[in-house]
Design a protein that fits this description.
By secondary structure, the chain is α+β, with helices and mostly antiparallel strands. Helices cover 28% and strands 25% of the residues. It contains 15 helices and 22 strands. A hairpin with a 2-residue loop joins strand 14 and strand 15. It starts with 17 loop residues before the first strand and ends in a 7-residue tail after the last helix.
């Protein structure tokens, strides 16, 4: 017998056909003379009916057995509107038990009771669940739409090396020892950054790649040690050209896969983004923006706020409209603990009711300041004001995180909305407390704003770049920049992050050499494929869109990697393990 249809394909119009189906047993139900079996494959489920003439052949069949059946398509009497094939069933005339199955350690269904560690250990079984199969099919569709869209717009897909030179500047590299070159190492690419820029120097003008990338860093729900990015680079472009290509690609994907026509993409500079949302990847599907209140408390007698302002800090607040009665002292204490995660020393609050203000600082601030708050923040009955007074970065970040937490808790976010935001003009540098120096905020090949070039030496804290991120629903979807194409400017940037000419040559010599032979202006992006698919699939766990993911400790529970290796292998690589 050869399969004629998938298990998600047959409809009422197929009644009367003789068909052959194959798949896994998803459910078995005995009703005396009749046995009903749901047969599953990646396309769906079809109900099979075995009457007394054939049911004896499947007495031992249970879930996850592999069957091949032949039979007739008939109209189903008790139709199932929740099933695509729910109007029909197959009256089986012949069955072949292709393979048996032991009882599985997890339920093979969208809703499973298995812990995540069990699911990862038996990932090949977990992947039989329809929800995960749909996610990976969605991922496939995204990559195919991307390839077709970019190819139609003149881009060439070009592969770049996986084994490359270690250029440590940013996340930690994964190192690969060389057997032939004793004591030398390759690195797995954190991104194809240098190679795609070399392709621009080589004259290809428009490049893309569905690129595997590797970073040895701490993991979280939306991060894996190995990941895929849609890598794009273009020559002879400005920011507007890059934005146009990316927005066109997103419109294509969301139109075809979600039947959504996207509105205009907003743009906000980094400094304004932090000021309004306390985050460089804000969820803009709801309001509750941060409010700077330094002017309200400029002459305050409240010692805590006064000291913060005298030290150059800020008093920021968010207003939770018409919700003061929902926040008990116990709940407010939990919010206090939450902002401390982000370095804030305290969370102050005021509630506004019929008798005016009450709360932790109601007696500490003046009537004039209270009136100013009502006017500036448009306070009305039952509003709650939450304050964080601290250094600017702490005040903004803590309130920004609290804003998102409350947005979810109070159901303020439209979950069916897709809100894109370009965050532009990122800082060129950030100060590393660990290294006691300024490091590249994006990467050292990002171009500073032309008007900020003179700040590379003396005013790094206020030097901004031509870097940009695209944010979607609070996730950083992509990061990119206009690159440096001038050799002298590149040398200035290396010098600004403390790289001597000798160090720069050692790390990036081949790259800097290429700059001497005519480098075009160029720029691009790296789009996080998993994050994009995660949002499209409606999940908040990146493991749900990766076939074989790692745990939070970067372990593969299924294959038990990483693992030890034979001493012979280590000897061949001239490596010894330090106890």
């Amino acid at each position: 017998m050869r399969k004629t249809h998938t298990n998600g394909e047959l409809r009422l119009s197929d009644v009367g056909k003789k068909v052959v189906l194959e798949g896994w047993v998803a459910k078995r139900r005995n009703f005396g003379a009749l046995v009903f079996v749901d047969l599953r494959d990646r396309e769906g489920i079809t109900q099979l009916v075995f009457d007394e003439t054939i049911s004896s052949q499947i007495v031992d069949v249970r879930n996850e057995y592999v069957l091949c059946v032949e039979g007739d398509v008939v109209e189903r009497q008790d139709k199932n509107p929740n099933l695509a094939t729910g109007d029909i069933e197959i009256k089986v005339t012949s069955v072949d038990i292709v393979n048996t199955a032991e009882t599985t350690p997890l339920i093979i269904a969208d809703e499973t009771d298995a812990l995540e560690d069990t699911r990862l250990k038996y990932r090949y079984l977990d992947l039989r669940r329809p929800c995960l199969q749909k996610n990976l099919m969605l991922r496939h569709k995204v990559t195919m739409l991307t390839r077709n869209y970019l190819s139609d717009h003149g881009f060439l897909e070009i592969e770049t090396p996986i084994l490359c030179k270690s250029t440590p500047e940013g996340a930690r590299d994964y190192l690969v020892p060389s057997r032939i070159s004793k004591g030398s190492f390759y690195a797995l690419p954190q991104s194809p950054q240098i190679y795609k820029q070399l392709l621009m120097i080589a004259g290809f003008e428009k490049y893309f790649q569905i690129a595997r990338c590797f970073r040895d860093e701490d993991l979280r729900a939306d991060r894996q040690p190995e990941f895929t990015q849609i890598d794009i680079e273009m020559s002879f472009v400005e920011e507007e050209d890059v934005f146009a290509v990316v927005e066109g690609l997103m419109r294509e994907i969301f139109s075809k896969l979600k039947n959504v026509e996207l509105p205009a993409f907003l743009r906000i500079p980094y400094v304004e983004c932090m000021r309004r949302f306390g985050s460089d990847k804000p969820d803009i599907r709801f309001g509750m923006e941060l409010q700077l209140l330094n002017d309200v408390f400029a002459n305050t007698g409240f010692t805590i706020f006064q000291n913060i302002l005298n030290q150059g800090g800020e008093v920021n607040a968010i207003v939770v409209k018409n919700a003061a009665d929902q926040f008990s002292r116990k709940r407010l204490d939990k919010l206090q603990e939450y902002v401390r995660i982000y370095g804030a020393k305290a969370l102050s609050f005021l509630k506004y009711g019929a008798d005016g203000f009450s709360g932790s600082i109601a007696k500490a601030i003046s009537e004039q300041e209270k009136n100013a708050l009502v006017e500036k923040l448009d306070i009305t009955a039952n509003d709650l004001i939450l304050f964080v007074a601290d250094k600017r970065a702490i005040s903004q970040t803590a309130l920004g995180a609290l804003r998102v937490k409350l947005g979810h808790e109070l159901d303020l976010i439209d979950q069916d909305k897709f809100a894109f935001l370009w965050v532009t003009n990122f800082p060129m540098f950030e100060y590393s407390e660990e290294e006691q120096r300024y490091v590249a905020a994006h990467h050292p090949f990002t171009s500073p704003n032309l008007e900020d070039i003179d700040k590379l030496k003396e005013d790094k804290a206020n030097c901004y770049s031509r870097a940009y991120d695209l944010v979607l629903n609070g996730y950083e979807l992509l990061s990119g920049s206009i690159r440096i194409h001038d050799q002298k400017l590149q040398e200035q940037v290396f010098e600004a992050i403390g790289l001597s000419k000798e160090e720069a040559k050692e790390r990036f010599g081949f790259f800097l050499e290429a700059f001497r032979y005519g480098t075009p202006p160029h720029g691009g992006v790296g789009i996080g494929l998993e994050r994009l698919v995660m949002i499209l699939a409606g999940t908040d766990n990146i493991r749900d869109v990766v076939a074989f993911p790692k745990t939070a400790s970067a372990s593969d529970l299924m294959s038990e990697a990483p693992s030890g290796v034979d001493k012979k292998q280590l000897d061949e690589l001239h490596i010894s393990i330090k106890e």
